[in-house]
Fold this sequence. Notes:
Layout: E1 3-7, E2 10-12, E3 18-25, E4 34-39, E5 45-51, E6 58-60, E7 68-73, E8 78-83, E9 92-99, E10 102-105, E11 108-111, E12 114-117, E13 121-125
Parallel strand pairs: 2-13
Antiparallel strand pairs: 1-3, 3-8, 4-5, 4-9, 5-6, 7-8, 9-12, 9-13, 10-11
Amino acid sequence: xxxxxxxxxxxxxxxxxxxxxxxxxxxxxxxxxxxxxxxxxxxxxxxxxxxxxxxxxxxxxxxxxxxxxxxxxxxxxxxxxxxxxxxxxxxxxxxxxxxxxxxxxxxxxxxxxxxxxxxxxxxxxxx
Length: 127
């Protein structure tokens, strides 16, 4: 059974930092790209970042580029999201998700849908 368990959420002040972790089990972790997706209160799901199977390729939403860093440790079956310079708009439940498929289009690495999700961890950015 695929399991994804997020941790590391909590309360942070604007300008602060948090590091989220996602522990994966039940599948061959290093065969899959992984993503972080968030849902702000009252809003829909928003893709945040993705990383390919070995960490060589990372992608970010424009609003997170330069502030967030995704990484993974395949020896620990864990993917991370380091969040710096947090803003109140970053308040959301953050979900870890397994990427169902990846492909190349016009030479660009692309992410398909997500087929497994964790239960999420709440990040609140407030003074």
